[in-house]
Amino acid sequence: MPEINLELIKQQRKAKRYTMQYMADHLKLNNPSAYQRRESGEYKFQAVEIYALSNLLGIPMEKIFVKKLPK
Q1: Using 50, 70 and 90 to split pLDDT, how confident is the model at 67?
Q2: 48 burial type by CB count under 10 A (0-12 exposed, 13-18 middle, 19+ buried)
Q3: Using one digit for the tens of pLDDT, what is the confidence trace for 7-42?
Q4: CB 65 within 8 A of CB 8
Q5: How far, in whole angstroms, is CA 33 from its chain's centroid?
Q6: Which of these, 33, 31, 22, lies nearest to 57 by C-alpha position?
Q7: pTM of the model
Q8: Which residues 6+ apart lie within 8 Å of 18 measured at CB?
Q9: Smallest Cα–Cα separation from 38: which of 66, 6, 3, 13?
Q10: Rounded to an integer, what distance in angstroms lies between the CA atom of residue 8 and that of residue 20?
Q11: How far from 10 is each of 48, 57, 70, CA to CA, in Å?
Q12: Which of 25, 27, 39, 47 is the most exposed place for a label (fewest CB within 10 A)?
């Protein structure tokens, strides 16, 4: 089952100097802490949010998803 590459999302957000407030606004979330919980993995990004992340951060969809390696 593929997982979302949260580290890549965080790196790209910081590289573009986007604040969590900026990200929350563009993903139509109520506040920056709602975005922070997603980026940290506490909550999962919704499908529509992943598409918006791809466009906003300039990350191809195939790079957002990574295969989970077996332990």
Answers
A1: confident
A2: exposed
A3: 999 999 999 999 999 999 999 999 999 999 999 999
A4: no
A5: 13
A6: 22
A7: 0.88
A8: 56, 57
A9: 6
A10: 15
A11: 18, 10, 24
A12: 47
Q: Which helix H or strand E contains 65, and what residues bound it? A: strand 65-67
Whether pLDDT at 2 is above 90:
no
* Predicted pLDDT of residue 70: 57
- How many CA atoms does the CB half-sphere of 42 hold within 13 Å? 7
Task: Give the integer Cα–Cα distance in Å for 16 and 44.
Answer: 22
Measured from the Cβ of residue 62, the count of other Cβ atoms closer than 10 Å reads: 9
